[in-house]
């Protein structure tokens, strides 16, 4: 017999503190940074880039963690599994996620790498270019999974960024198995075209265990090999019961149960910083689905949440999304 | 023979990273926090308050450091002396102040207290209530003074908040002596009524070594014993060649060389967070004086810089003050 779920969504991802700074295109060029993307950097590069970038502000980030922040802001219940170190930035991450009502109890890494940082450079066109030092976050493994927590969640949401080290890959497959055995759903975001390209065969295998898949147009193309948007969405929807593919300013397409829904983007008064747009879109859709709404309604909440995220600096909501959706 | 100064202002103060969070009046009441003030807190209280306050954002702060950030943004040259620890928040502080072009070379504290943090709670009325854990910052002593740096600055600006431990008090008197021996000026901000009340006799003694004094109405009253604003300004101006006293929304009064100048506040489109208002007022006035402007012009730059600071969350300028003053 399947017990009723006690929380809506459990997120599993890289626990990261963001360092956000405004800069210009010339700085990106001088540093050889591709605009709009995510680049993994090591300690040396992190130190060098940080020493040259402008003064910044620090705030908790991490893709799946941002999504949990969005769901909590919408009124959903959630928890998070991710690895920080026992250092000051780890304390900041843990404080912030707990303060917004998201359960977080993963044991911090001790005597190892420091807490992950993402150096985010925001250009005047509101694009964010991310340079991620993974540190402690990538050391998440199967031992960090709380099986009871997974069984208690309607949806376990996995962040593709984390799907890199063998331990994390094993943890993802294990989490999906525990969730399905308890009659729960598994969601995945592909996160990044580079991640998908780097682990293509294993991502394809993982997607076959996924109920709700999130991707942007580039990631959909990378996984399916279909460069054209509609063809990529179609190919993706053959692999997974529900696929949600974002398409920048055009909004998104959700294919679920054989039906295709076009979801319009929500209007934005002033585009400031695209950091967190995809994370908050996923928050809205997952909130809507777990609240029992139909797909178009869930998609609209995703658009609203994404619009809030890009109207200010930083990835997490700065006003109550629950109030925003009325 | 007096050598020309090579930098405009050297700031000496508590090196602090701010943790800013929006909250409501009920939270302040529940925590017993007096709105608008600064309270020193110990490790236990810092941990307890942090565990209960909302998710925040971290950014470099510290009163005199914010003032140096303002002068740099206006186009002035400056340096800073303050004590961080060799930890992650210390790295953040050092990076941010250097990134805005302020010289900073004070040796970090090792194997002692962590870098100072100020838990700042912003209420819907834009007031900030500060809870400061001084940590490493209060361990600044005479040994941290760079005498050549002091001699190279037109003005050495001392932050009253730091005037607490005997080592810091000795450092202030020593810095004033070095500056005057080199034909330079000494400025001081009284920082806080509580600081003034706690060390009244020594503050009075220190003021007799000061050329440019900054205070708000409460601090002026605390030092002079005159509760009425005009009387307090008059009493203060008898102690010091130039006194600048802020008066909230009414602007400020500067008495210099026997002349009294009323300085209007600059208009603010939207009052968001008063953190840094006094620090940035001092930045504008010190920039103006070291640039050779007359007192009313310097005061107007102070008003403009303060208005920028209170129009956003956080104490340091978020747009070029140089561009703002044209």
Short description:
Chain A is 39% helix and 22% strand. Chain A has helices at residues 25-31, 43-52, 63-74, 88-99, 147-152, 166-181, 193-198, 200-207, 217-224, 229-237, 277-290, 295-309, 321-324; strands spanning 7-12, 16-22, 38-40, 57-60, 78-81, 103-104, 116-122, 128-133, 153-159, 185-189, 212-216, 242-246, 252-256, 259-263.
Question: Characteristics of this structure?
Answer:
homodimer, alpha/beta, UDP-N-acetylmuramoyl-L-alanine:D-glutamate ligase, nine-stranded mixed beta sheet, 14 strands, globular
Q: Overview of this structure, please?
A:
- Chain A has helices at 25-31, 43-52, 63-74, 88-99, 147-152, 166-181, 193-198, 200-207, 217-224, 229-237, 277-290, 295-309, 321-324, and strands at residues 7-12, 16-22, 38-40, 57-60, 78-81, 103-104, 116-122, 128-133, 153-159, 185-189, 212-216, 242-246, 252-256, 259-263.
- Chain A is of the alpha/beta class and 326 residues long.
- Chain A has a single domain, classed as 3-Layer(aba) Sandwich (UDP-N-acetylmuramoyl-L-alanine:D-glutamate ligase).
- In chain A, the strands form two sheets. Chain A has a nine-stranded mixed β-sheet with strand order 6-5-1-9-10-11-12-13-14, sandwiched between helices.
- In chain A, strand 9, helix 6 and strand 10 (185-189) form a beta-alpha-beta unit.
- In chain A, helix 3 crosses helix 11 (277-290), helix 9 packs across helix 10 and helix 11 runs antiparallel to helix 12 (295-309).
- Chain A is globular, with a radius of gyration of 18 Å.
- At the A-B interface, strand 4 and helix 4 of A face strand 4 and helix 4 of B.
